Amino acid sequence: MSRVFNFSPGPSVLPEWVLEKAAGELLEFCDTGQSVMEMSHRSVEYKNIIKDCEKLLRKIMSIPDNYKVLFLQGGASSQFAMVPLNLMNNSGKADYVITGQWAKKAYSEGAKFGKANAVASSADKVFNYIPKLDPAVFDKDADYFHICLNNTIYGTKFDKLPDTGKVPLVTDASSCILSEPIDVSKFGIIYAGAQKNMGPAGLTVVIIREDLIGNAREETPTMFDYKTHADNGSMYNTPPTYSIYICKLVLEWIENRVGGLEKLAELNRKKAGMFYEYLDNSSVFKATVENPHRSIMNIPFVTGDEILDKRFVTSAAKNGFVNLEGHRSVGGMRASIYNAMPLEGVKKLIEFMERFEKEV
Length: 360
Ligand SMILES: *Cc1c(COP(=O)(O)O)cnc(C)c1O
Hints:
This protein is of the alpha/beta class. Helices cover 35% and strands 16% of the residues. The chain starts with a strand and ends with a helix. Pyridoxal-5'-phosphate (PLP) binds next to helix 3.
């Protein structure tokens, strides 16, 4: 067996400890005679898994007691609709910051249900920065204010949060959740598809302040109402049981192997810092995002020559560094260095790039 260094933006690399633990329990989980995949979600054993998963997430992220944690399906993309369906029910207005494709998709979905207002955009420079926000243009009556905390495709992240006053701040944190500590109490809703930093695809985690639950628009389908899932402990219907189990293992890895979120953040900053430093000093490669908006999870870079970019991606893959091509909409390269990418992977990639530089 030989495992590659996988820089995929998602689904993405998982900690080897997690995969090995899951492999060891694949046929039989804890004297139950069955795999977690085969288990009733109503069984005592499974209830302990989902309970422990929530408990660990609450501990690691210091989630306050007045927030619910929901384990849903449908991806972050479903949240683009679920947020307005549940929140856009007072003034019928919401503010959005357009920092990339995901933010734009969230905005378009919001616009289907009410008055979605784009308060700022960085579309003029291919989203390679976070626009300056002027609180004077924020709508004080908005039902919520939406941002995409880390822009997976363009490699930008908010270096500080907008002050939205009483308007609940809602964020798509798919590609940065669990990468460093965040103050959950600053948000009304944090949602994330699991397949970047939390586990396999199929699970969507929603962390929601309790007072935002129970005011869904009348036409809201039962499955799209946060209240349905909050009232039923994410068991209204069958939850993505195996993905939740893997997520629990990922959280155990963070807590027990890495030593918590502060430690993990330190490691993530070190990995990203090394890579940016290399790019800033390279004569061939160049980062496309400037400080202070640089993501520590997704790092896009270019050579300035499309043919050379392609040659690099192909050559890297042959050498065991895979999924380095940029998003199909922007080209170039992108290294996604999520939590599970070891420091060694980044070091080896830099070494490979140094060798590549000498050859061109
Ligand atoms: C990957 C990603 C999405 C899409 O997630 P799905 O789970 O595929 O719907 C949305 N937003 C961000 C920021 C992402 O990185």
